[in-house]
Amino acid sequence: MLFLKETNEFRKLYWIGLFVLLTLITLKSYYTPFPSDWLYTHLLFNYQDEFVKRGLVGEIIRQLGVAMSYDSALYIAYGIFLSVCAALLITIIIPFKGYWQSTGCVLFFLFVLSHSGTVQHFYDNFGALDGVCLVLSLCALLVIYKIKKPWAYFLAYPFMAAALLVHEGTFFTYIPLIFAFSLYLNSSKKNILQLLLFGIALLLMTTAIFYYGTAKHSTLDQHYKKLINIYGDDSNEVTIAKGAIAVLHDRGIKENMRLVALDIKKYGSEIKKEHLILFITLFPTFLIYADLISEDIKKNGYTKKLLLFASALSPLALYPLGYDFYRWWSLSLTNLFLVTAIIAGIDDRFRDLLISFFHRYQYLVLVAIIFCLIKGELGVSMGGNLFFKDLELYN
Asked: CA angle, 137 as apex, 136 and 140 as ends, to 5°?
């Protein structure tokens, strides 16, 4: 017997939602969000001396005449976090307009918004530039959905180009999702050709950023000392991280892979333990999506939705290139939930299936929510707190 009826369960859902909200507030009340020293350092990157990767946000700050300080970084971090929250809410809720009274719909909202890989993650990784790239990518998705091709690609390109200039990792974290979404909407030969040209343009830009975006006018030590002289390093809240500056100095693919291998070798036991905790936490989530996709295949066969779901997991491709393993999972899960809502907004049959599924599997959904509340946020790196202390020794 189900605890919640299919509709008109406002009172019970209200108390469940209130419990989830109060639990999150209680768990997070001990932690005041602040920009990490890595984010603060990345905000200091700009184009004043030369073009460098990840310098767009810092350049905009410089052009606006904002004096960079810890307080400025805190305001920027709040702006990024709130923008991410707003983008998540809009993308997840709007596709279900007219169905908000459905129990399955509300349970889906609670499941996504309380998940360890969504808001909780961005709260922990406060003000991360991933949030900027996410919002820009959602804007590109909207353009591709609303505007006729090929003009959509001309208008989407500036959003994705900006995202790449914010962080070149966008090529792995969000661009595959853009491609899959366009193919989901239209898989004609004409659109595939236009999409291929769009992809080549983005690939060329990514390559240019990768090869020309490293600092050439100074060594790592000179760069670090320069930032210390300009911005100081006497704040009790945040410091300039030399390891963060190192990404601009001879940090190619081979070097990144070497650092990941070193991380695994030195902190292998901690990483294995944290992966075990991760998979236990996400086990109900895996079950939910395995059953949901299985039901969709039984009813509708193998469709292009599967490609879109698979593309959401593209951040996991960064495993060999970066030791932020928790981060890759969080970005993948956020993509997966957003894709689910976007498909529901386009495909009425899938939306009805999703609402019905979350109602019928309400106990599993509630277990997934409880697991995420117990675990809390997915952080950034596994064994990372230890690794970051040593990182400067490796550069």
From this structure: 95
The answer to whether 335 and 315 are in contact (CB under 8 A) is yes
Phi, psi of 52 (to 5 degrees): -135, 150
CA-nearest of 274, 253, 272 to 317 is: 253
Composition of the chain by helix, strand, coil, percent to 5: 75, 0, 25
Task: Quote the number of domains for the chain.
Answer: 1
Q: Report if residue 197 sits inside a domain.
A: yes
In this structure, is residue 267 part of a structural domain?
yes
What gap in Å lies between CA 186 and CA 304, rounded to an integer?
10
Q: What are phi and psi of 7, to 5 degrees?
A: -140, 170
* 2 within a domain of the structure (yes/no): no
Cβ pair 331, 130 in contact under 8 A: yes
Mean pLDDT over each residue of the chain, to the nearest integer: 86
Q: Which domain holds residue 60?
A: 10-394
What does R_g of the chain's alpha carbons equal in angstroms?
22
Read off the pTM: 0.89
319-365 confidence digits (pLDDT tens): 888 878 889 999 999 999 999 999 999 999 999 999 999 989 989 99
Q: Would you list the DSSP string of 333-373? A: HHHHHHHHHHHHHH-HHHHHHHHHHHHHTHHHHHHHHHHHH
What is the C-alpha to C-alpha distance for residues 75 and 342, in angstroms, rounded to an integer?
A: 30
Question: What are the tens digits of pLDDT across the range 57-87?
Answer: 999 999 998 888 888 888 999 999 999 999 9
Q: Residue 263: CB partners within 8 Å, gap ≥ 6?
A: 271, 323, 381, 383, 384, 387
Q: Alpha-carbon distance 224 to 212, whole Å? A: 20
Give the Å distances, CA to CA, from 22 to 19, 29, 372, 377.
5, 10, 14, 16
As a whole number of angstroms, the distance between CA 103 and CA 313 comes to 28
The amino acid at residue 141 is L
Residue 367 pLDDT level (bands cut at 50, 70, 90): very high
Q: What is the Cα–Cα distance from 154 to 112, expressed in whole angstroms?
A: 32
How long a stretch of residues is the chain? 395
Asked, for residue 108, whether it belongs to a domain, the answer is: yes
Between CA 206 and CA 197 the distance in angstroms is 14
Q: How far apart are CA 331 and CA 317, in angstroms?
A: 11
Average pLDDT, integer, range 44-56? 91
Our measurement of the distance from residue 175's CA atom to the centroid of its chain's CA atoms, rounded to an integer in Å, reads 12
| Res. 376 pLDDT band, cuts 50 70 90 | confident
